[in-house]
Amino acid sequence: MSVDLDKYFARIGWDGGRAPTLDTLRSLQHAHVLGIPFENIDVVVGTVPSLDLSDLEAKLVAGSRGGYCFEQNTLFADVLEQLGYGVTRYTGRVRVGARPGEIRPRTHLVLGVEVPGGVEVPGGGEGPGTAGGGRYLVDGRYLVDVGFGSTDALLEPLPMIPGLVREGRGRRHRLVLEEADGPAPVWVLQAARPGDTWIELVSFTLDAAPLPDIGVANWHVSTHPRSPFRRLFVQRTHADGHVALDGSTLTRTARDGTVTVERVDGPEALRELLESEFGITPPPGVRPER
After folding, report:
1. Could you tell me where the beta strands, DSSP code E, fall in 149-238?
2. Distance between CA atoms of residues 80 and 119, nearest Å
3. Is position 69 annotated as part of the catalytic site?
4. Which of 30, 32, 42, 69 is catalytic?
5. Catalytic one among 78, 145, 152, 242?
6. What SS3 class is residue 54?
């Protein structure tokens, strides 16, 4: 079973061309991030989110719901494959908030996406591979992630070229390589913060993650007693800013960086907030946490 593309495009408000080009990928990724919120409500009420495509379509496309990384990127990968992109799934380790030297489990899913024609990077020169306009094409993939959710998340594909800084819709990212004890080098996605400082978001290696391993990681995140996702997290990116709910704390971040914080008091206020701010119709049993 595959996701119904017409219904998916209607859900994210997208009506672009369906050729598997870089422009299509950029436009789709941005529309998806703005169109479908990040949320872990199922985990909070005691359910393991299904990664079956029919269930994902019912929840994220037909239903007024969102999802977290395993759901969002599984759905998006199917859409991209239907359009003709090559997609490789990688499991990664979230580094935001990690202590120095801490090794976290692989509890995040990202995508390596091959765009026909190669990867477009800054440069010059002439000859094979030249794309014109001071840019050239190289073989490789783009890193795509529609399931991170935060103000540092990718809004556009990032060329998988170490050290290349790419600005996309006001956010700057890069990938760096680390030497590893094992045979596979570790790729680290970093985001720029004000003052030209860089924070680490997620690390991963280029060994493809089979679906059973993704399922195990999804089960671990949703059931382990110490999983951070046992706490309510809801986020949505808008064209003019970002809004995030952490437990009972609501944080609004404007495009200029202005931050306002407020508290959510009681289940009725929470339900109203989820519907009005995030476009989510929550299942019964969701309560703000103290």
Report:
1. 158-159, 166-168, 171-178, 186-193, 197-204, 233-238
2. 16
3. yes
4. 69
5. 145
6. helix
Q: Is 265 a catalytic residue?
A: no
Q: What's the pTM?
A: 0.91
**Could you tell me the two tokens for 182?**
């094992």
**What is the spatial distance between Cα 189 and Cα 199, in angstroms, rounded to a whole number?**
9
pLDDT digits (tens, 9 = 90+) for 226-268: 998 989 999 999 999 999 999 999 999 998 889 999 999 988 9
d(CA 214, CA 111): 12
238 in active site: no
Distance CA 83, CA 5 (A): 9
Strands 86-94 and 171-178 turn out to be: unpaired
Written as one string, the DSSP assignment of 15-36 is: ----S--HHHHHHHHHHHHHHS
Name the catalytic one among 32, 108, 173, 242: 108
